[in-house]
Design brief:
mainly alpha, 15 helices, 317 residues, Four Helix Bundle (Hemerythrin (Met), subunit A), Hemerythrin-like, Hemerythrin-like domain-containing protein, Dimeric_xanthone_biosynth
Length: 317
């Protein structure tokens, strides 16, 4: 067993002590390069710095600002394309001038020699006026209208649209009563099962409810809304908002209809459907416009411009 171990160990010793082959090759390569390196002048190894004359004589590096929206990599290619298109445009203009001269449009020897089209005005152009050069800027109101507000969630829309829903509830009742009275006035027949007395009472009740509705609006609701909304501004004559002016026109028609129905109720006059129609048609268009416009003004999309949700909750309705 000892002999086997000694033979194994001694068999590996020569391979371990043998140096690697690349060491001999690298050493021989360095010995061959040594004479060449010694022959070089010492100045070739020293760092060379540029003189002040060379620095000042160098041309400055061109700097340019890229236009917005351009890619830095594709910008040189775009410049090459533009440079290639410029000579083509120049060639096209030269061909047009030569063709016009050959067709006989040029008059006189001077135009023929210069190949200039006399129909083209070569005089220097007059300076453009300030009216044409000035850029028209839209007013601030149009810019503000173009700015769209963010979309409302369903819960936010219900909060902002609360006043419009309440107002439309009362207005729908007025529309139904008006249609009942107007239908009888245009057809000449009362609704089935309705007597003359109840029909006249229904008309007078419609007028009293509408008058009370307008009184509550002008005393309690419109003054609060007018703090921020010009649609409910109070004033005299044309100084008031359109909705308030509509109230006055509606009241004039209400007084005519109320006086006629009261005379019919007392028996001074007989109820005539043609006469009832003339008493209603003078202010019917203004009434229906007011009922729709007032609800639209109190809508969510318009109210969100002036009020917050917390402020709308505090407005009485």
């Amino acid at each position: 067993m000892r002999s086997c171990r000694t033979t194994l160990c001694t068999s590996h010793l020569p391979t371990l002590r043998q140096p690697p082959r690349h060491r001999h090759s690298s050493a021989s390569a360095l010995r061959q390069q040594a004479p060449a390196l010694e022959s070089r002048p010492s100045s070739s190894f020293a760092p060379r710095f540029a003189t002040t004359a060379e620095v000042t004589s160098r041309a400055p590096r061109p700097r340019y600002s890229l236009p917005l929206g351009t890619n830095r990599r594709s910008y040189p290619q775009q410049q090459q394309q533009q440079q290639q298109q410029q000579p083509r445009a120049a060639m096209s203009t030269s061909t047009t001038t030569t063709t016009t001269a050959a067709s006989g449009e040029a008059s006189g020897p001077e135009a023929a020699t210069l190949n200039v089209n006399p129909s083209v005005d070569t005089s220097p152009a007059a300076p453009a006026s300030s009216e044409t050069t000035a850029t028209t800027t839209p007013p601030k109101a149009e810019v503000e209208e173009k700015k769209k507000l963010p979309a409302l969630s369903p819960a936010e829309f219900r909060q902002y649209n609360r006043l419009a829903e309440h107002m439309n509830y009362f207005h729908e009742h007025f529309r139904q009563t008006w249609n009942t009275l107007w239908g009888a006035a245009t057809t000449g027949k009362r609704p089935a099962g309705v007597s003359i007395r109840s029909f006249i009472a229904q008309g007078l009740q419609f007028i009293s409810q509408l008058e009370m509705h307008h009184g509550i609006e002008e005393q309690h609701i419109f003054p609060i809304l007018a703090r921020k909304m010009p649609e409910f501004k109070q004033g005299k004559g044309n100084g008031a908002a359109e909705l308030l002016r509509q109230h006055k026109e509606i009241h004039k028609g209400m007084e005519l209809l109320q006086g006629y129905l009261e005379d019919c109720q007392t028996g001074e006059k007989d109820l005539d459907m043609a006469t009832l129609k003339t008493k209603m048609e003078s202010w019917g268009e203004v009434l229906w416009k007011h009922l729709d416009q007032e609800v639209e003004t109190l809508g969510a999309e318009n109210m969100r411009k002036y009020w917050t949700i917390e402020e709308i909750r505090r407005i009485p309705m």
